[in-house]
Amino acid sequence: MYAHALRMGKELNRLGNAVSGQHTALRLVARTVKGLWAVEAGVAGALDTLGRRLRPERASARGRSLLRRLGPRLRKTAVIRRNLEIAFPEKDVLEIAALVRDVWGNMGSVLAEYGHLETICHREAEQRLEILRQADFDVFKPDGPPAIFVAAHLANWEIAPGAVVKLGVPLTGIYTPLTNPRLDRLLYRARERLGCGMVEREGAVRHLVAALRNGVSVGLIVDQRVDAGAPVPFFGHAMNSSITPAQLALRFDCELIPVQVQRLESARFRVIFHAPVQPDHAVVDDRERVLQMTARLNTLFEGWIRERPGEWWCAKRRWAKQLYRDHHERTSAGIDCG
C-alpha cells in the first residue's frame, strides 16, 4: 500500500511539474505574442504618426521606402512569396524577389496613408481621385436602388469605399477585427473617417441584409480564401471564394459592381467602377448562377492582379494547404514549376 501511494505521489508530482511547465510555456508564448503585437503596432503607429506630420504624397513615399527595406525580413514574407510563386509560375527567383519588395512597398504606402484617407477621398478628392464609370449604373441615379460593391486587396483598397461615399452613395462594409488590438484600434479610427458604416464579419450577413432593405449599399473585399466559401478557379487553382456578394445581388435584384483601385503615384489613385457582373440568361439554377458570377469576379480580380502584381497584398494563404505542400516539394526538389 505504501509503495503504491509512493508511486502515485511521484506520478502526481510529475504531472504537477508538467502542468506547471505548460503554464510557464503558455505565459512565455503570451508574452511573446504581446511583444510581437507591440512591435507590429509600433511600426504601424510610427508610420501613422509620421504620415500625419507630412503631406499625403510624402507620407506615402516614406512608408513605401521603409517597408521595401524592412518588409522582406518579416515572417509574412514567406506567405507572400509562396502566393506569388503559385500565381506567377513563369517568373524566376529574382522576379519574385522584386515583386515581394514591391508588395511590401505598397503596403508601406497603405499604412502611411491611413492618416490621410479623409483628405484623399473627400477634402482633396478632386486632385487625388480619378473616378471612371464604365456603365450607366442604377445606384448612382437619384433615388437609385442599393448595390453590392466588391473590390480586391489592390493598391490601397480602403480608397474603394471612400470613392463610393464620395459619389453620394450610403455604404456599409464588413470589418474584420484584427487579432492585434492596438493595430485594430488604429485602423478602425482611420476607417471611420471614410464616412461609411462598418459591421464586424461575425454575423455580418444579417446586418448586410438589413442595410440593403433600408436602401444602403454594401461594400466587400473578396479576393481572399473563405473557409465556408465555394471552390472557384483563381489563377488556375480552386480557391474557396466568398459567394455572399452574388447571393445578395440575386436575392435583392441589385447590381454587383466590381471596383478596381489603381495607384497612379504616391497618394493619387484611379478608381474604376466596372460594368455589373451578371449570370448568363440561360442559367436558371440559383446555385449555378451564384457560382458563375463568383467565377467572373475571380477572373476580373486575376486580370487586375496580373496588370499590377506589386500592388496585390497577399500575405494570407489563398488556396488549399495541399497545393502549398506540393509546391514546396517541387521547388525543394529543384523542379521547374513554370
Report on the architecture of this protein.
With 338 residues, this protein is of the alpha/beta class. It has 2 domains: 2-107, no CATH class; 128-311, no CATH class. The protein is built from 12 helices and 9 strands. It has helices spanning 2-53, 56-70, 76-87, 93-113, 117-123, 125-128, 159-166, 181-192, 204-213, 244-252, 286-307, 321-332, and strands at 129-133, 148-151, 171-175, 197-200, 217-221, 230-234, 237-241, 256-265, 268-273. The strands form 2 sheets. The chain has a 7-stranded mixed beta sheet with strand order 1-9-8-2-5-3-4, sandwiched between helices. A two-stranded antiparallel sheet has the order 6-7. α8 links the parallel β3 (171-175) and β4 (197-200). α1 (2-53) packs across α4 (93-113) and α5 (117-123) packs parallel to α7. The radius of gyration is 23 Å and the shape is globular. The termini are far apart. Mean pLDDT is 86; it is low at 1-12 and 18-36.
